[in-house]
Design goal:
- The chain has about 130 residues and is mainly β.
- The chain is globular and about 40 Å long.
- The protein has no helices and 11 strands.
- The strands form 2 sheets. Strands 2, 4, 5, 6, 9, 10 and 11 form a 7-stranded mixed beta sheet that branches.
- β4 and β5 form a beta hairpin.
- Helix content is about 0%, strand content about 50%.
Length: about 130
């Protein structure tokens, strides 16, 4: 049974930092690219970050580039999202997802991802 479990969300002041974790189980983690997405109330889900199966390539949208860093530890079956210089507009539910390394579409394309976690809430106060 595939499971992705996010943790690390919370309430933080603008300018602060949080590190999210996503623990995977149920299949060979090192064969999957991993992505982080977020969804705020009333808005569509959007791409936040992605990392390829071996960690050799990462991708970010302009909205978080330079502030967020995705990383992974294949020995621990875990992907991380370090979020610095947080802004109120970063407030959202954050979700991790996986896609098999053989997929060739854009890392930012949600349709490429097969399994999703339940999410962790990040709230940034001004």
């Amino acid at each position: 049974q595939v499971q992705l479990v996010e943790s690390g969300g919370g309430l933080v002041q603008a300018g602060g930092s949080l590190r999210l974790s996503c623990a995977a189980s149920g299949r060979d983690f090192s064969s999957y690219d991993m992505g982080w997405f977020r969804q705020a109330p009333g808005k569509e889900r959007e791409f936040v970050a992605a990392i390829t199966w071996g960690g050799g390539h990462t991708a970010y949208p302009d909205s978080v580039k330079g502030r967020f860093t995705i990383s992974r530890d294949n020995a621990k079956n875990t992907v991380y999202l370090q979020m610095n210089s947080l802004k109120p507009e970063d407030t959202a539910g954050y979700y991790c997802a996986d896609r098999h390394y053989s997929r060739r579409g854009s890392l930012s394309d949600q349709d490429q991802y097969a399994y999703w976690g339940q999410g962790t809430q990040v709230t940034v106060s001004s």
